[in-house]
Amino acid sequence: METAGIDAFSSPIFLTASGLLQAFCIIKLIRASMEHRDYVFRFLQTVVMHSCWLMNLSAGPKHAAQGIAREVCRLRLRLAHGYLYFLVVTTGFSIISVQIGILRNQQSNAPPAFYWTILLLFGFSTAHLLFPTILQSSTLDVLYVATMAAAAFLLSPWCTRADAIPYMSIVLLAFLRLPASSFATRPSIAVAGNVGVAIVMMVRTMVDFDDSLCDGSVGTSCNVGRDIYFERAALVTEVSSFFLVAGISLSAEAVLRRTVQQGREYNEATNELSAATSLLRLTCDAVVELDEDFCLTEHSPELAAILLRDRPGSTLAGVKFTDFVATPEEAAQTARLLNGSNGHENFDDQADQAGVSAHAFHTRLVDTNSSKFRTEVFQVKYCKVGDAVRHLIGLREITDQQSLARQSVTLPACDPDDSSMSCPYRLLGSADGSPVAQANNRCSSAKSMSEGEKEVRPIVYLTLGNLTGSCSVVEASVSASSLVGIRVTELFPGMGSQSLEGLLAEVDRCEVAEEVGLLAQKQHFFKEWLVQWSPGQTDYVDGLVHILKSDSGSHQLLLCCRAANLSPLASPSGVSSEAPRQQSAASAFSILPGMPFEDRAPSLH
């Protein structure tokens, strides 16, 4: 059936419509190029600098770092291995098809050189399958040149008839030219290799070699139907293939380099985060990770121990960090500080291009016994993959030690009747030093000692237990024997008595001896507790709390107390500014014999 082209009536319409569409496209391209000329110029400059194939086909990328170039080469080597595995499958099926045709005497009319070339490709890919080490980074270009030589030979008159050239060109484009362009070490090599294939294609479409290969016979088998339409189709196919291969090669170069750069940036961010985590673990009592809603991403045994939430089966994962803050006002302030929106200019200035920033501030946390203690918070805010915001938080209790941060948040005013302003008791690790260290950040009403001055602070011992349903003093040092029988609520008004009763109740709730032993291994100490020695005598004491077990099996608490810095007994004169003290347990406290605690030079903030 003969086919006709566009008739004479429709030709002007076709030319007009196509010309208008082409004009619209050209105008749009020119307008877009003018509007985005800076971007177009940078793109062309990047192509020229990184490919260098327009100016020097043999030159590699001049401005690429050596490390990135090596990693890109390793990625290309992996692509080459994968391509050869793919080639052994495709050529293997082709060989099977040829074998079946030979056995059935139903071979195609392709020249014999075509089958031998396919067999050669199958043999090379099989050798790589058996010995993968024959392919190295240094031989990638050799493999690419060999592949392009095979493609050019398959387009030659010895392998392909002229009427099958367009079809063969498309097949070679899909199975050889496009995949191979991804593992050429430089785009210039990929373009140069395809120039050879394009030359063979052009010669085949313009010069007739087929008559000389027809074994001297003249017939329909040698009539390839060569005409102007055939040549035009072959040229359009080859030009499109050439630019497609060149674009794929340049795109592969850009994608591989971007992949390597992103991998390096990810590894660098991971290493920085790991270093920050390690540093925080060295200086902080607990390190946790919060999500963008300030919820813990996983359970933290250290934080659970500090907050007395380390009961078996309990977890802190998913709990908001602000739920551990002492008051709602401080929780709201902590949330603003974590977001970096509380007027701290340095917080936003420290954020780098990777979205990582660091910050430090002070707040107060509360445990399950409603005991509040001052805590220094170190924050590292960063973004994970997918722009998920995370907060790496280091918590360091500063009730007994100096703050590491240069700036801190102003805490609420100190209430002398609220022992929560100085940690009622806290948990210490076995690696900690002196159980009672120098106090920092005193209340404004406290009398500070001169720098370097020390004095002896005697110790008094008290044993607390449940007598007649209430926690009372069971035993005491001889100098404080008048305190025996007094209730804890009378001896330690405020939060002190609640903390001691809460700790004793916590011990009594333990069902097995292992839980009691675990709780007893922790060291509990308090500082600057308000104590009522007598109806007319108040004082401030520091001390330790130990868990005891009596012969009857009941649990008791042993308190080791000494005068705090807020106490008049700790002043250099040793005399209160108030009226002369009566002879009582307080006066006996000042002359109690015993080994004083090691003191440090005070420092005020």
Summed up:
With 605 residues, the protein is an alpha+beta fold. It is built from 15 helices and 10 strands. It has 4 domains: 20-51; 61-262, no CATH class; 284-412, PAS domain (Beta-Lactamase, 2-Layer Sandwich), CATH 3.30.450; 453-590, Beta-Lactamase (2-Layer Sandwich), CATH 3.30.450.20.
Task: Give an overview in words.
Keywords: Membrane, Transmembrane, Transmembrane helix. The chain crosses the membrane at residues 12-30, 83-102, 114-135, 142-158. It is built from 15 helices and ten strands. It has 605 residues and is an alpha+beta fold. The strands form two sheets. The chain has a six-stranded antiparallel beta sheet with strand order 5-8-9-10-6-7. Strands 1-4-3-2 form a four-stranded antiparallel beta sheet, with helices on both faces. The chain is elongated, with a radius of gyration of 42 Å. The termini are far apart.
Count of DSSP strands:
10
The general outline is elongated
Helix segment tally: 15
Strand order, sheet with most strands: 5-8-9-10-6-7
Which sheet architecture does the biggest sheet show? Answer: 6 strands, antiparallel
What is the overall pLDDT average? 72
Distance between the termini: 101 Å
N to C succession of SSEs? HHHHHHHHEHHHEEEEEEHHHEEEH
What fraction of residues sit in β-strands?
Answer: 5-15%
Count of individual domains: 4
| Backbone CA Rg | 42 Å
Task: Assign a percent range to the helix content.
Answer: 40-55%
Topology at a glance:
Layout: H1 10-35, H2 37-51, H3 66-104, H4 112-130, H5 140-154, H6 165-180, H7 187-206, H8 228-283, E1 286-290, H9 301-306, H10 328-339, H11 345-349, E2 357-366, E3 372-383, E4 389-397, E5 426-428, E6 459-467, E7 470-476, H12 488-491, H13 495-509, H14 513-521, E8 523-534, E9 537-549, E10 555-563, H15 585-590
Antiparallel strand pairs: 1-4, 2-3, 3-4, 5-8, 6-7, 6-10, 8-9, 9-10
